[in-house]
Structure formats: structure tokens, C-alpha cells
Amino acid sequence: MDDFLPPLSPDEVRVLGSLIEKQITTPDYYPLTLNALTNACNQLTNRDPVVSLDETTVVRTLERLREKRLATLFAGAVSRVAKYKHTLTDAVLLTPAEIALLCVLLLRGPQTIGELRTRTERMFAFDTLAEVEAALTTLATRPPQPLVTKLPRQPGTKESRYAHLFSGPAERLALVPASLPSEPAPPAIDAQHDRIAKLEQEVAELKQQFAEFRKLLE
């Protein structure tokens, strides 16, 4: 059964959306380093609103996402630099079409079906608008927690827009305020995360050695 997701802050929404996007569109460079993730959050394209998060804010946001089991620190066999990836699809069962729609909604806010079809092309190719609407309907009615909602059509517009519900009721969604200009994370924070990455890598290596030793015994 899917987990019930806790509400996310605007910064958490941006970081989570950026991790999802880069996993799909640039898999060779995923998981992301802190610097790469900060740049992804602050992109000038495919983002609404455009923000300027510094590395300290991104680190603290990642810690909150880790507490909510939506992100994790990754320690690979080659790189010793701390890297991060999302774990949304570990907590919630989602199809590729659904994860693409959620990603675009997290990064660009409420959108029409036509906008969503166009903006998800890099992640998933919908053949028709009906397919987009069907996937949105599934997300809007899924138990135990709807993940999107259809907003009332605004005066002067022809189409309704859809919004994600990761931050609670759609009417409470707030724009992400622009932050101060980017600045490097304090050395203590970088050192802490590097230390964690090294420890997790050492554990992984010990597990591998143990598995090889066990195989020899067998």
C-alpha cells in the first residue's frame, strides 16, 4: 500500500521536482551532487517561478525530504562526493506517465492538459490529450491520497488547470519566494555530508566483501 505523504514546503517541492526531472532527462548524471541539484533548482527554463536557492537552503531542504523519506544520500562505488536522489517512487506506486505529469506540476505549477502534454514530452510521450486527462484523473482519485486536483476554470479562460497536492489543498499553494543570491554551503555542512557518504560507501564495500567471502565458503 502507498504511504500517506506529508505536506511539502515550496523549497521541498522544487528540490523534489528537480531530482525527478534529472533522473529522467539526464540519467548519466544522476544522482546529483549538491552543486548540480542547486543549479537544477535555479534553472531559468522549465521553472515557474524562477528562484535562487543557495546551497545551504538546498542542503537543509534535502534533510527535511530525507526525514519524510522522499530523498536519500547516495554513496556509489566510484564517486566519493555526496550525491542525492529522490525516493518518491519507493513511497508511492506511479507509472512513467504519472511521474512525468507530477514532475512538471511540481516544477511549473498549475497547467492545462495541453500544456502538460507539451511539457512532458522529454519524459513521457502522450499520444492524445485524452491520455493526459486519464492519467490526471487517476492521480486525482487515487487512494489513500489524491496527488492532483482539477482547479475551477477561471473567468476569461477556456480550459481548467490541474495542480499538484503535495503542499496541501491547491488553494493554499504559495509561490516560491526568490531567495538570496547563491552562496556555497558552510564547510561544516559539506564535511558532514562527505563524511556520511564515505561511511555509507564503506558499509556498501563491507557488504560486498562479506557476500564474496560467503560465496567462497559455500
Summarize the structure in words.
There is one protein chain. Helices cover 48% and strands 7% of the residues. It has eight helices and five strands; from the N terminus they run αβααββααααββα. It has helices spanning 10-25, 34-41, 55-67, 88-91, 96-108, 113-119, 129-141, 187-217; strands spanning 32-33, 71-74, 83-86, 148-150, 162-164. The strands form two sheets. It has a three-stranded antiparallel β-sheet. Strands 4-5 form a two-stranded antiparallel ribbon. The two termini are 37 Å apart.
Task: Provide key terms for this protein.
218 residues; mainly alpha; Arc Repressor Mutant, subunit A; three-stranded antiparallel β-sheet; two-stranded antiparallel sheet
CATH superfamily: Winged helix-like DNA-binding domain superfamily/Winged helix DNA-binding domain
How many DSSP helices?
Answer: 8
Structural class: mainly alpha
Q: Would you identify the CATH architecture?
A: Orthogonal Bundle
Shape designation: globular
N-to-C order of helices and strands: HEHHEEHHHHEEH
Task: Going across the biggest sheet, name each strand in turn.
Answer: 1-3-2
- The number of strands is 5
List the helices and strands and how they pair.
Blueprint: H1 10-25, E1 32-33, H2 34-41, H3 55-67, E2 71-74, E3 83-86, H4 88-91, H5 96-108, H6 113-119, H7 129-141, E4 148-150, E5 162-164, H8 187-217
Antiparallel strand pairs: 1-3, 2-3, 4-5
